C-alpha cells in the first residue's frame, strides 16, 4: 500500500512539471540547441545564458509528451545556477539512470531523479533524455544552433 502511495506521488510530481513547466519560454539570446525525436515527434528548443562558467538563465520551448516536457522542466531546475561541468555531469548521470544504472549521485538531480522509472519503458527513454541531450549540445557546441534528430542517441 505504501509503495502505491509513493508511486502516485511520483506520478503527481511528473504531471505537475508537465502541466506547469518551469523555465518554459524563450530567451532572446544565448546558447541554443534545437532537437527533435523523430520516433514520437517531440521537439525542443533550449536556450541558456552563462555568467562566466555558471548557467545564469535557461528556458525551453517546443512540444512534447508528458515525459518529455516534465523532464525538460526538471532539467532546467537542476542545472540553473550550476557550472557547465556540473550540468554536463548531471546530463551523464541522468542518461545512465534512465538506462537502469544506479548511482548515489542521482539525488543531486532533484525532481529529475523521479524519472528513474522510465527504464521500465524503453520506448520513452528518448522522450526523457531529449532535453538533456539539448543541454549537452548547447554547451558542447558553444550554442551553435541547428535542428538535429535524436535518432543517434539511446
From TrEMBL:
CDD domains: IscU_like. One of its GO terms (biological process) is iron-sulfur cluster assembly. Signal peptide: none annotated. InterPro entries: NIF_FeS_clus_asmbl_NifU_N (IPR002871). It comes from the Bacteria. Residues 10-127 form the NIF system FeS cluster assembly NifU N-terminal domain. GO terms for molecular function: iron ion binding; iron-sulfur cluster binding. It holds the Pfam family NifU_N. SUPFAM superfamilies: SufE/NifU (SSF82649). NCBIfam families: SUF_scaf_2. Belongs to the NifU family. This is Iron-sulfur cluster assembly scaffold protein.
